[in-house]
Amino acid sequence: MPDLDSKPCKEASLILFILAICSFGIGTTEFVVAGLLDIMAKDLNVSIPVAGWVMTSYALSVTIGAPLVTGCTIHLRRKSVLIGLLSLFILGNAISALAQSFSILIVGRVIAALCHGAFFGISAVIATHIVEPNKRSMALALMFTGLTLANVIGVPFGTLMGEHFGWHSPFYVICIIGVLGLLGIIIYVPKKLTLPLTHITHEIKALLRFDIVLALLITALGFGGLFAAFSYIAPLLINVTHFSQTDVAYLLFLFGIGLMLGNYLGGKAADKSLKTTLYVTLILLALVLFGFVVTSHAKVPAVITLFLLGVIGFATVPALQMQVIQCAKTAPTLSSSANIAAFNLGIALSIYLGGLGIDLGLGFTSPSWIGALLTLCSLILLTLLNRRVDKTAKAPE
What is the spatial distance between Cα 370 and Cα 351, in angstroms, rounded to a whole number? Predict the structure, then answer.
């Protein structure tokens, strides 16, 4: 088996496929709660914003755990780390499946989340080093295909399962997916994954540069804009658009199709022009989020907007990830994990702000315009970052 310094690697497609299976399970466990929020809130006897902490706790655990777990495992064999992370993921979901109280459910979510950031951080670095340089954004998109499929298949199916068999049932299925992914890594991923040599102190020093911090904030606010609306999508569609809980499952399937399409288009576009892709997708995302405030009051416009939200929202993902990797060329592993943490920091922030808007009586449409404002903030930071990069490029050596 050739090491991963070879470009391209003949086994790249197989490795990316296995990583995509794992990302499908991880993505499903994170996102499936959005379709189960009403069911969980009623069964656990908590309000919808409180139930939102099932998502918030996961996102915050990823934010904190991603750099810590990555830093602690940076000198270990990549395959061994991936096996350990998937084992942790399976344990956390088993606890969630067996949980009979809100507090135990949170414990399970936190344990599962500790796998998330480091796994995607390591996987992103692997994906970009087993393909040709001009195909790296697309490789990231392929690796993240599991996340999009989680929304196409995992979330809608999990929502239907939760409606008919209780909210615990999807977590049992997620455990099975985790076991399949773990077996794939054990059997097919090479024992020696040779990546660029690095050192934890060097990576931390590089990660603290202002341009990388800006890139991470752009990720958090840009992706957070999408999740401000998505996190409370079920209550919005049920209480504002007047769809049924069953309808929500099918609508989440449509949303997932949009995510899958957006992920592919975003990866292709980012390989051609990273800067243009970021500007276009973030501007369009803000416009769609603002538009959702109006269109959510009628079924057909709401369905169209929901699909567009999926397409445009996930078209940002490969570009946001590639931007950080490019800014931190000398610290690929920790910066990549930190960007996964940034994604989830944005999710946690958006869930909190969206729930706050609902608690303050601003209605179930408030998370959408709150998300639009977050996205506009990311655009401001993107402009600042590009000005700094352009200024540095023009400076005499």
Answer: 10
CA distances, 139 to each of 19, 75, 235, 268 (Å) = 11, 24, 35, 10
Q: Between 334 and 220, whose confidence is greater?
A: 220
- Asked, for residue 67, whether it belongs to a domain, the answer is yes
Backbone angles phi, psi at 207, to 5 degrees: -65, -25
Q: Taking every pair of C-alpha atoms in the chain, what is the biggest distance, in angstroms?
A: 66
Measured N-to-C along each axis, helices 136-143 and 102-128 cross at an angle, to the nearest 10 degrees, of 150
257 in any annotated domain: yes
pLDDT band at 203 (very low <50, low <70, confident <90, very high): low
Above 50 in pLDDT, residue 6? no
Q: Give the other-Cβ count within 10 Å of 76's Cβ.
A: 10
Nearest Cα residue to 178 out of 76, 303, 87, 305: 87
R_g (Cα) of the chain, nearest Å:
20
Q: State the pLDDT at residue 1.
A: 34
Whether residue 189 has pLDDT greater than 80 = no
Burial of residue 12 (number of CB atoms within 10 Å: 0-12, 13-18, 19+): buried
pLDDT band at 144 (very low <50, low <70, confident <90, very high): confident
Number of domains the chain contains: 1
Domain for residue 3, yes or no?
A: no
Is 7 inside a domain boundary?
A: no
- Please report, to the nearest 10 degrees, the dihedral formed by the alpha carbons of residues 331, 68, 108, 356 taken in order: -80
Give the list of residues 6+ apart from residue 289 with CB closer than 8 angstroms, or none.
225, 226, 228, 229, 309, 368, 369, 371, 372, 375
Q: Which residues contact 240 (CB under 8 A, 6 or more apart)?
A: 296, 297, 363, 364, 365
Look up the CATH number of the domain holding residue 222: 1.20.1250.20
Rounded Cα–Cα distance for residues 69 and 62 (Å)? 10
* Residue 385: domain span: 12-394
Measured distance CA(134)–CA(128) in Å, rounded: 10
- How many CB atoms within 10 Å of residue 303? 19
- Measured CA to CA, the distance from residue 339 to residue 219 in angstroms comes to 7
